Predict the 3D structure of the following.
Amino acid sequence: MRISIFGYGVTTTPLVSFLNQQGHNLYIYDDKFTQSHNDDFGNTLLPPKDFIPEQSDREILSPGIPPSHSLVRKAQHLISEYDYFYELLHNDMNTHKKDMPFIIWISGTNGKTTTTEMTTLLLEPFNAQSGGNIGTPLATLYTNNPKVWVLETSSFTLHYTHNASPRIYALLPVKEDHISWHGSFENYIEDKLSPLKRMDSHTYAIIPSEFAHHSLAKDFKGTLILYESSQDLAQKCSISHQDIIFKEPFLLDAIIALSIAKFAFKADDMRLLNTFHIGAHRIAEFYDRFNRLWVDDSKGTNVDATIQAIARYTHTHIIVILGGDDKGANLTPLFEFIKDKDIEIISIGANEERLCAFAKKYNIAITPCQDIYKAMDCIHKKRDTNAKDVVLLSPAAASLDQFSSYKQRGEIFTQLALHS
């Protein structure tokens, strides 16, 4: 079998290594290759223009490659990494009588990582490991064979997955994101709900109640749990949310994790969950030497995440740093949310001109600063040493226009805040 790999980066490197160990010499296509050459492992590295569909038996792709890419349009046997390993697991079960792992998928616009990590913590006593967007690569999960796979699952992966399905699928709230990649918000929703059509009567799905009338939800064969809020889901799953130490938006993440653990193995251990520590760069509070509050929410890369972050601090004056690559997202909900609140905006990044136009339309104070260094210098000059307000970095945009990652953006923000 001639296997083609589309995209050669963080996602596909472990897959390539695994396939090489299985004896496959691969044909790897990536935009960064300008001419055909071979690596030390017998793989042929080629530019996309050299892909000939008739010479390929199977194509496995990096999920970030958009459907509009020439490789995707030409492919005739395209599958996702999820589909590939799902096929291997089923072959092992049928041929070698191996047990199928208990597979959990977690998706949504925001909160996927936190919910996945919380769920993995709760299910560690049952030999659970996390993977997908975070944690262990699928190739390593397959090799290590843990009993429970908890996979943070992106809309990109869901778009290309047509055979694999989980035992439990949990969908956090879905807001506008990656619209240019999916083509429309409706397509984005369709991809987010797509696992439901492949799940059988022995499965569970936890999804927002706004999708109750979607055809995929109405045709779902398993046990469907619809929720409107954290409190609503807690009530439906008999969880005492008052005993959870986390505040929103992490409260919903916690309740979904508890619900998953309860349905999977009756493992809704509240005390264990309350030992969980929220990851870096997501509404991470810290204080400077003047005891002033700063909040690193660099992971707030879309409008809904930023709205969630701002909502925690509306009792005081907020200086919010916005800006970056917003990928053409609809910014109206953000400005509608902040228009009547005690907020001023410091803007940076590629969409600064757009932010200024919105701020003018909604009569909201904004100071354009171009980059994080000028922004922080501006804030230090205007902020009193005894200020009781909050400075919030929650850009509602991706970071790659000016930074290597949201992590670097958050680290620079924190460093500049603490060295005033």
